[in-house]
Design a protein that fits this description.
The longest helix is centred in the middle third of the chain and has 18 residues. This protein is of the alpha/beta class. The chain starts with 8 loop residues before the first strand and ends with a helix. It folds into 2 domains: 158 residues, Rossmann fold, CATH 3.40.50; 156 residues, Glycogen Phosphorylase B (Rossmann fold). Helix content is 35%, strand content 15%. Strands 1-3-2-4-5-6 form a 6-stranded mixed beta sheet, sandwiched between helices. The chain has a 6-stranded parallel beta sheet with strand order 9-8-7-10-11-12, with helices on both faces. It is elongated and about 65 Å long. 44% of the residues are buried. Strand 11, helix 9 and strand 12 form a beta-alpha-beta unit.
Amino acid sequence: MAQSPRTRLSGPTGLLNRVAAPRCWTLTTGEAGMTSQAIGLAEAVGLPFAHRVARPRAPWRWLPGTFTVGVLEHGLAPGGDPLEPPWPELLITCGRRSAALSIAIRRHSGGRTFTVHIQDPRVSPRHFDLVVPMAHDRLRGANVVPVVTALHRVTPERLEAAGRHFRARLLGEASTPGPVVAVLIGGSSRRHRLDPKTSRRLAERLVCMAEQRRARLLVTASRRTGAANSAVFEAVLREAGAFFWAGEGENPYLGMLSLADFILVTEDSVSMVSEACATGKPVYTLQLPGRKSRRLVAFHEELRRRGMTRPFAGVLERWTYTPLDETARIARIVQERMGART
């Protein structure tokens, strides 16, 4: 029987593996950013894995993450994947709402499943074998390994392949006289606001920069950008001859990162900033209106301290830095600690 894309068995190359049982599960509640981090780590670890999506329903989703009685048998919302034996050797979860599911599976497996939770679970780290929070969360413990950038699926091999695949679509046949600038647009969050007025102002600023530098603009919106804001960006940018991806056709995101000389990212998205910094290219952050959280301020300050990002002030300057590969570092730690248990 054919498997759905989200539960397919995958190996380190992401290819379908119909023979081997999944020795690893990645488990999230479905958010794209959470899923990317969990799958990125699984791919780096290298075990055949299956991705599962499950969401606790009421009252479990309201209860503390350590309350797991009955959650696997009676507490999963309809439409998700079943969580039942045989339990995997390795379970990778991401996001606060999947923490209870990880704790429950660890208990049901009799402790045989090695559990890795990405981000702050908001419960004691002792309920997991390894916890991987952002450094700015200030979570500490013997089994806690903080990361500076979010985990992701961006690798040199994927970038190279995407650059070849998308070159004609993004750059055309003619050579570009100036630099190629990729722009990654996030959207409104609890702390930031993106509305059509702000979108138009930002789009016009990008066009002005591109005209001055004779740059080729490659711009992508995200799910949080919203239809109204995307429409503004699309109208302004396409009139100026820029490439704007509004969701049609194959997603060129990795191709944009690969082909860009410079990358501009709105400051609201930790995931997109982290992915941009994996390229080793100059990364500029774009301010959005709103009040920044202490955690987000600490994240950006650390990247600037390491020479990886700068605030965008309308001018493009080249610089170099050694990109962080936090996903590979955590994968090695997982492999070492799992090996120590055998």
